[in-house]
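tool_call predict_complex ligand=FE2/S2 (inorganic) cluster
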Amino acid sequence: MTKFTVNGNPVEFLMDPATPLLWALREAAGLTGTKFGCGAGLCGACTVHVDGKATRSCQVTIADLEGTFVTTIEGLSDNRDHPLQQAWIAAQVPQCGYCQSGMIMAAAALLKDKPNPSDEDINAAMTNICRCGTYPRIRRAIRMAAAGRVDSGVPGPEIDAGEAAARVPALKG
Ligand code: FES
Ligand code: FES
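tool_result ok
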């Protein structure tokens, strides 16, 4: 069985039940914000939430997920305004950007469990790899979001949401 909820929408995937969640999201659902890095559970670029827990989507099959609630970076907030997304912008975290959706999803799961994480909590939760070395800015952004220091004055993405939706099927709502 391959029925579960993705970003609040009930979905039945008509695919081989052994398909990794990563490929179901990217190839069938068009949710390309979740990235393929290593395919081996090492890099974290593919991190999504399964029932609120950070999960490397290359390591679970769609058969594993029957009845669960999956959230991807596209579903983290209604208007790309999750405190972490705002903090990421304010701290100018991304460089190439490839790892960043996985990083934000890992950080979001952390803050949900531990709203004021210690350095040790951050170290334990943020095991994703960034080839560009943005780790100091990631830590700063997590601290900003945890402290509630980003709530206004942060410019949104310089792309119209309607225009983005027209180009990316995953964003159509
Ligand atoms: S692609 Fe899943 S952990 Fe690297
Ligand atoms: S920003 Fe380039 S891999 Fe992290």
